[in-house]
Task: structure prediction
Amino acid sequence: MKEIHVGSMRFSLDPGQPLYEQVLAHIRSAVARGELPLGARLPSVRELAQALQINPNTVMRAYRELEREGLAESHGSQGTYITRDAGRVEAVRRDLAAAAVAAFLAEMERLGFTLPDVVRMLQERSDADTP
Amino acid sequence: MKEIHVGSMRFSLDPGQPLYEQVLAHIRSAVARGELPLGARLPSVRELAQALQINPNTVMRAYRELEREGLAESHGSQGTYITRDAGRVEAVRRDLAAAAVAAFLAEMERLGFTLPDVVRMLQERSDADTP
DNA sequence: TTTATGTATTATATCACTTAATACATTTAG
DNA sequence: CTAAATGTATTAAGTGATATAATACATAAA
Result:
């Protein structure tokens, strides 16, 4: 899994997982954690495709999904830009986190762990992490 | 998503997700939480396939994976049985939980949440759950 | 005018998943 | 002994998501 740098972003793609989803997730997390500032210009479709050695259509698909989520806006021939709506970014961040938490807890409960069990496990890990 | 009862197990399959993985996950969680006792006999391949309205090969694939994990054993023409090795079950349960935790934390960190952040979120949910 | 951009279309390829249709050996039940 | 149920194996085919390829067009900036 080679790391590819494009602008301020680092990509590491895993063939075997959908590429457009990985590109999407990379950019999304870059926005969520502020690595990509509001209003930042994304690499052009062709440019990113070239850098990642994937098809432009695959990048387009990721960009379209970013637009659908309200994280990016296409400015015609000027390029694609991260939204300037900080609230939108925060909302997406929250939604994704909520979804991750829900899926995680569901999985843990399937394995027979209760919510307090899970809290305890993570608590311990947190303690071990910062002693 | 219709619920189908087979013996002591309830199945609800979602076309669009790999069927063999769903069958696998259902049985795995049934074992992990003790719903399926040690040494229990699983439905025959044909029987389960018939009940779930899927192909016997698909069930076979799930059963083979259960064997690979050490959760089930094929007893030839007598059927397929859950292992009697309680330690093995517990180990699988632990492994699956550890994997789920790792994946979850990685995802949350991608979204810019630290481990203490996550602990706090789940803590709050736990408090709200049991007031 | 040239260039870079987003966008769209059509075709093809690949791969995982699923179904289908049998077939065989072994064990249990009658 | 016979019949039935079981796990197992094989071969073929179908389906859908994903990805690539090759173009094409309109717009805006240089």
Summary: The longest strand of chain A covers residues 3-6. Residues 87-129 of chain A form one domain. Residues 18-20, 54-58, 61, 76-78 of chain A lie near DNA strand D (CB under 10 Å from a C1').
